[in-house]
Amino acid sequence: MWKAKWKMWIQHHHFRLDQGICSHPAAGVARRPRQAMCQEEEKRMGFDIYRKVPKDLTQPTYTGAIISICCCLFILFLFLSELTGFITTEVVNELYVDDPDKDSGGKIDVSLNISLPNLHCELVGLDIQDEMGRHEVGHIDNSMRIPVNNGAGCRFEGHFSINKVPGNFHVSTHSATAQPQNPDMTHVIHKLSFGDTLQVQNVHGAFNALGGADRLTSNPLASHDYILKIVPTVYEDKSGKQRYSYQYTVANKEYVAYSHTGRIIPAIWFRYDLSPITVKYTERRQPLYRFITTICAIIGGTFTVAGILDSCIFTASEAWKKIQLGKMH
Q: What sections of the protein cross the membrane (predicted)?
């Protein structure tokens, strides 16, 4: 039956073509032969890769309707997922060997905040040493000593710079006018960071690895060694602006040191070395062309698979109907 309908549709449209422009040319083209115009019309129609099937030759089914609805919902879900990914800023990281902050003059800014609840402020000092020959005892620039625990303790806050070479800085009583007999070096580290402060939601690094370190229950006469491996870190936002910071790993030990003259005055040591590897975080957003390509692939692929599934179900259904009709006869 459908073959007869298709034949009638073809004859009907051929009749319309014969009765249309090919039989009644416009005034401006009246001299042109009718056959040549029809050939040009057929050539133009031959470029149409989206051939149309007449509506009366198609057959809707309940299965096709269900598959179409599921197909549209699936496309909508994938579209919203891709749209979310397109809007969201992605942070990618890479590793390379280089000094990222060459304009720093070979210096690294350090921020230290530490509390010693059982050591008076007049005894607390900061000493800095490194392999370039720097040896500074009692560093006082950009630092504060705040009494705590009713004046029995001290909170030291300092901002200073170190050279980009292996070295150490330590909190001790070395700069005090008179050395105490039994200095209590129990402490709490509130903050130790290097470089700029990075507060980025998508970056979770060890920028303040010692923050919250509590040594209040340790031996009061013990020294503390924190061995730091500093890793240069660069963060670049979408505008290309870069911020330089440093992450670090830490290992620590606690000990009571002695020499031939007796027990050595305890201190809190931060021994550091720099890693040659730099970590770079870069903000990126998915390009528009990739988003459009993905959406086209989702729509085309989903409709193709759904069409194959619907065709298989329809073919199987028709075959089953024929089998049932054969059994009835």
A: 61-80, 288-309
